[in-house]
Amino acid sequence: MALSARNLLKGKVKDVKKGQVMAEVAIEVAPGVEVVSAITTSSVDRLGLAAGKDIEVVIKATSVMVNA
Question: In sequence order, which residues have a C-beta less than 8 Å from that of residue 40 and are 6 or more positions away?
């Protein structure tokens, strides 16, 4: 599959918290650095996401907020 997104991070699933419809997936992309994504539980199952699995995080957003 080809993607147009340029923000791709390799990481390892650290934790998956599944709800009835949505799941929270924590991915470690560098030592001590995590990205957390909210995706559907059906996507978690389809992708076989579980702690320890090597995955890629693709970030494509039209806006990013920064607070200082």
Answer: 21, 22, 23
Q: Report the distance separating Cα 27 and Cα 42, nearest Å.
A: 18
pTM (two decimals) = 0.84
Of the CATH numbers 2.40.70.10, 2.130.10.10, 1.10.357.10, 2.40.50.100, which one belongs to the domain with range 7-58? 2.40.50.100
User: Cα(67)–Cα(65) distance, rounded to whole angstroms?
Assistant: 7
> At 34, which helix (H) or strand (E)?
strand 33-40
The answer to whether residue 42 scores a pLDDT higher than 80 is yes
Say if residue 23's pLDDT is above 80. Answer: yes
